[in-house]
Amino acid sequence: xxxxxxxxxVLGGSVMLTLLLGWGLDxxxxxxxxxxPETPLWGLLRRCGPPFQVVMLTALLRGSFQETGWQPxxxxxxxxxxMLSLVLIGAGAWLVTxxxxxxxxxxxxxxxxxxxxxxxxxxxxxxxxxxxxxxxAVVTVVAIAAMLLTFPGMEKLGxxxxxxxxxxxxxxxxxxxSTLGNLFAGFQIAFGDMVRIGDTVVVDGEWGVIEEVTxxxxxxxxxxxxxxxxxxxxxxxxxxxxxxxxxxxxxxxVFFHLDHSAPVGLMREKMQDILGECEAWDGRDWSLxxxxxxxxTIQVRAVVTAKDADDLWTAxxxxxxxxxxxxxxxxxxxxxxxxxxxxPRDNSSPSSPPPDEPHEPDExxxxxxxxxxx
Length: 374
Description:
The protein is an alpha+beta fold. The chain contains twelve helices and ten strands.
């Protein structure tokens, strides 16, 4: 009877104590969160409950499983202890990443709520995202290294690896040159404020918005919902357009190719009316002027402003559509015309009818075609 109760007591007690500690921690965080709703940290720390319980349960079992007195456990004592140690290291790394994530997200949330500049918020968001990825990578590497050191014989392997670190470093540096370049480029983008999540950019002729930034690549969401994945080294080695740099306000143009008789003055009045009813126009500035001329047409450029790239696209399309419709209805002579004339007739063409054959008078005085017969 005692042999059956001891394992149940040890295992059941560990589970019950773990559940009790997890419940107590969650209750404490809920109360603190209720008293300080302006601080999101306590609510975010509640996500640390599952890894905390795994750590506590593994630690309790690691320290008490030998007291069960159960023969199968005594036979495999070393293996069970090693397995629990590996689980404890992994759960500890999980708990550390959850805590760091809660602290970082809480700091970003408080900064975003107190800052009115969207550009600064996007910059901090980009930096926070990369910091979290770095922390997760470092914690993962440390956890894996700690797990490997628990295996017997890894000390000798580590010494031999350190002895050949120079050669391995050279080989790894040459083999992973592009990866390391992207890694350092990611740091440069994050802390050099080159691009941020939410920026409107034009890369390789594609217009889109930065949707995701990692240590090695960026994801650009285009206007037609496509995703373009590009290495971060592209943004540090090639020129690109960042329409959100220095503010989201932007200016755009609309070009019209019209006849020389186009009423430019009336077009200015019409454009003012169009923009007055266009919600996408921010009211900062507009203009309309003749910028070029050719023997057959003139080029009229309309300039509009908007608060961001999306509204600018809408404003340009509105001006283009309504101006063309107004010209077609009120001033159709202003639209460009192509002069045409009838094509000259080519008598040598195979489709031309054959010329009349020579005739000679018949005996009765009528003309008949010459057939060549006697």
